[in-house]
Design goal:
Bound molecules: heme C
Oligomer: single chain
Largest sheet: none
CATH class of the domain at 67-179: Mainly Alpha
Radius of gyration: 31 Å
Number of strands: 0
Strand content: under 5%
Shape: elongated
């Protein structure tokens, strides 16, 4: 009796490899009915085990109610004229960096529409320094980045909303850089420019 008990116990020492299935004292916790992701279920009318969120569900922190900021549009759906992101050194630097990554390959670093992609045969975009583009409201440029336009693809997945506005601010600075008069220079600095 003593010997057989020892033999039985050595068979189930922890850490020892074993070919036999584990002993489960209470197996109903291991085998309870459940639905794995993407599996079929007869319980629901549409046969899908995964349930869609209730209509109108919004993830926390993603209400995005501010149309001016998130869509560049006012209450009646018109493009807003001015960027909601303050034009300061911080947003311009960020915009410059993002512009040179995401826009310059086609539009060129000065926005003349002569980026490297054009040399590889891409359709040339218009220069940003023509009156029509200078006169576009900020919200419309934001919309072009977000949705693309004709031969230009959308950049909404690559460029987050705040960065799109930083790019718009920088694009305005680029336009000013190519179309400024002496009146745009502060009085005390005019000597240096002349
Ligand atoms: C892959 C090349 C490419 C990239 C990258 C690109 N664009 Fe464009 N963009 C174009 C082309 C081509 C057009 C002209 C579209 C047309 O009229 O067919 C255009 C047009 C525009 C226009 C003028 C829209 C109008 O009303 O005619 C603006 C503004 C603009 N792009 C801004 C941007 C900004 C800002 C970025 C960076 C976030 C960017 N683009 C990135 C190719 C590009």
């Amino acid at each position: 009796m003593g010997i057989s008990l020892i033999a039985l116990l050595t068979g189930c020492f922890r850490g020892q490899p074993s070919e036999s299935p584990p002993i489960r004292v209470n197996p109903n916790m291991d085998e309870q009915p459940k639905l794995k992701p993407q599996s079929v279920s007869a319980m629901f009318k549409d046969g899908a085990g995964m349930r869609a969120p209730v209509d109108g569900t919004v993830a926390r922190g993603h209400l995005n109610e501010d149309d001016a900021f998130y869509l560049g549009l006012d209450e009646i759906g018109k493009a807003i004229s001015k960027s909601p992101l303050p034009i300061d050194m911080k947003s311009l630097k960020r915009g410059q960096e993002r512009f040179n990554i995401y826009c310059a390959p086609c539009h060129g670093q000065v926005g003349d529409g002569q980026g490297i992609m054009i040399k590889y045969g891409y359709v040339p975009p218009p220069s940003f320094h023509i009156d029509r583009i200078r006169d576009l409201p900020d919200g419309e440029i934001f919309g072009v980045i977000s949705n693309g336009i004709r031969n230009m693809p959308s950049y909404k997945l690559q460029v987050p909303v705040a960065d799109r506005w930083a790019i718009v601010n920088y694009l305005r600075a680029l336009q000013l850089s190519q179309n400024a008069s002496i009146n745009d220079v502060p009085q005390e600095m005019r000597d240096k420019v002349k």
